[in-house]
Amino acid sequence: MTRKRKSFPFFLWHRRLGLAGLILLFVLSITGIMLNHTEDFELDKTSIKSDLLLDWYNINPQGEPSTFKLGNIWVSQWNQQLFFNGKTLFTHAEQLQGIAVLDDIIAIALEHHVLLVDADGEIIELIPVNTSSAIHKVGTSQKKIALLDKEKNIYLSNAQLSSWKPESNRLRSNWSQKTEINETQLDDLKTAYRGDGLNLEKFILDLHSGRIFNDSWGIYIMDAAAILMMLLGISGIWVWWSRKLKIRRKRHFQKHH
Amino acid sequence: MKLHNFVIHFLLISTLLFTANTHAKGTYQQPEEFISNAFNQQAPDPDIIWINGKLRQNIENILQHKYKAKRIRYWKKQQRSVWVLEEIGKKKPITVGIIIDNNKISQLKVLIFRETRGWEVRYPFFSKQFNQLSITDNNELNGTVDGISGATLSVRALTKLARIALLLNQQVLLTESN
């Protein structure tokens, strides 16, 4: 009776440990195999689109986007990311101040730079502009691009849009104004913002290491799973060995009695 | 006494290392000032060269990656052209000013350095090596530029920019002659 009490709980614990760690062991094994074949599975090239996962990673722009529209063109900025018609264009720390269009070239004014893009949203050039204070507004005047700085000084471009010079004459310009965007456009921006934010390799790697649960203590979950795997091995050998011993003793007992 | 000496040495070395690091990043000269100085304070209006076709291909071959912009500004008066170009060293762009006289580099200067390592390329002992270099038919420099240990990526970026400036200058001259 005493022998049964000793061996059965250990066997039970072996089973319990196995069942408890089964999911984690599966995750470890599957993700391990996937990471071994990162290039074959193109993990680094696959972007994750799932809202649930992106929310989990906090890949969400903060605050509200700033948007300027001219005809069919709308340029937005959300957390330093610039968007052209809802598609990612460029990242710049300076704040978007407005847009102006001249001969199929779109001038996107930042605080100390003007970014020129074509009608397809292809970057032509990022030009530093030497204004006495930060650019505040942009518009068109006399078939040129006009800039207004925060001290109300006006600067007028040359015909090639390659440099800006102070303009002493008062100019009439249609300065671009901020505008609101609709829900669909907001969704487009969100999708574009999140687009390159998380690839499958990062997710699988975090799942494998346990960092998906938490950056600081998540790894200990997978450490525990790895230790569990070792314990299962040891307890498996223990169970097998104790059974073998038990059978041997039984046979020995039967032989001699 | 020994501990005292150790503490002093430690503090001295730490201060030196910290000072070196704080000097690493920075704007050494504003691009506008570099351009203005190159033309004795009488800089011409910038001209534009469009990057397309074979020229784009050659530039991308030198850079070994895509070139995003469609055009580049330059300043030119007689046989002198000035280029302000950028290329990423390790993670951040290095802004370099290059003066070309008669198809040869007469000055190459690091204007803005944003990386935390490899800043030694800004010193004249290194940048002077580019002086009088021109470009071969294979778009290589016609002379060697000795590297700096620990600044390999910055050296590589500057060499690429020197080749691109010479290539662009050649293209401008070709366009003008046509």
Rg of chain A, nearest Å: 32 Å
Query: How many H/I helical runs of chain B?
Result: 5
* Level-2 CATH architecture of the largest domain in chain A: 7 Propeller
H-E string of chain A: HHHEEEEEEEEEEEEEHHH
Cα Rg of chain B:
19 Å
Number of helices in the DSSP assignment of chain A: 6
Number of strands of chain B: 6
Most extensive chain interface and residues per partner: A-B, 13 and 12 residues
Strand and helix order of chain B: HEHEHEEEEHH
Largest sheet of chain A: 5 strands, antiparallel
| Fraction of residues in helix of chain B | 40-55%
* Portion in strands of chain B: 15-25%
Portion in strands of chain A: 25-35%
Q: How do the strands line up in the largest sheet of chain B?
A: 1-6-5-4-3-2
Low-pLDDT ranges of chain B = 15-22
CATH class of the largest domain in chain A: Mainly Beta
Strand order of the largest sheet of chain A: 4-3-2-1-13
Question: CATH topology of the largest domain in chain A, anyone?
Answer: Methylamine Dehydrogenase, Chain H
Number of domains of chain A: 2
